[in-house]
Amino acid sequence: MSAEDNKALVRRFIEILNQENWAESAAEFVASAADAEFFNEQHAQFRSAFHDYHFAIDDMIAEGDKVVVRGTVRAVHRGEFPFAELKGVAPTGKAVEWQEIWIMQVAEGKFQASWLCLDGVSRLQQLGVLSPAE
Fold first, then answer.
1. Can you list the domains of the chain with their CATH numbers?
2. What backbone torsions phi and psi does residue 71 show, to the nearest 5 degrees?
3. What is the pLDDT of residues 56-105, one digit of tens each?
4. Which pLDDT belongs to residue 48?
5. What is the pLDDT of residue 22?
6. Which residues, including other chains, have CB under 8 Å from residue 29's CB and lie 6 or more apart?
7. CA end-to-end distance (rounded Å), the chain
8. What phi and psi values does residue 97 have, to the nearest 5 degrees?
9. pLDDT at res. 23
10. Residue 38: CB partners within 8 Å, gap ≥ 6?
């Protein structure tokens, strides 16, 4: 696949990820069934805490078999977050926004590997869990 094909695949993935029925299509994008299942579980847990999830693409670059996406996530904290950074924090009802950078390796029209970097500090500050630096 060309770099443009890979970018189109990532765009379609993000469009589906922004929908509530995203899990039905996850296997379409992920190379192994085990990876698709893991992704579905992780994202379902995330969605249980952060409703109205939306990832907006700010930049996208592709070279070779990799696509890099920088985007802005907007969501509302309506459930307990099961991961360590917010474990035990009651839902705040606050709308939050943070930046994420994804790198996705594509082969044969599916994601072979992916890496995520996100601004968790900003998210924690917006939720009132972490005080801004003075």
1. 3-126 (3.10.450.50)
2. -145, 170
3. 999 999 999 999 999 999 999 999 877 766 677 889 999 999 999 999 99
4. 86
5. 67
6. 9, 12, 13, 16, 36, 110, 111
7. 48
8. -145, 135
9. 66
10. none
d(CA 98, CA 69): 14
3-state secondary structure the chain: CCHHHHHHHHHHHHHHHCCCCHHHHHHHHECCHHHHHHHHHHHHHHHHHEEEEEEEEEEEEEECCEEEEEEEEEEEECCCCCCHHHCCCCCCCCEEEEEEEEEEEEECCEEEEEEEEECHHHHHHHCCCCCCCC
DSSP bridge pairs for 74: 54, 97
Tell me the pTM. 0.88
Question: Distance between CA atoms of 101 and 36, rounded to whole angstroms?
Answer: 20
Tokens read off for 129: 């869990």
Does 21 score more than 70 pLDDT?
Answer: no
Q: Could you tell me the strand order of the sheet in which 50-63 lies?
A: 50-63, 66-77, 95-107, 110-118
Q: Distance (Å, rounded) from C-alpha 113 to C-alpha 58?
A: 21
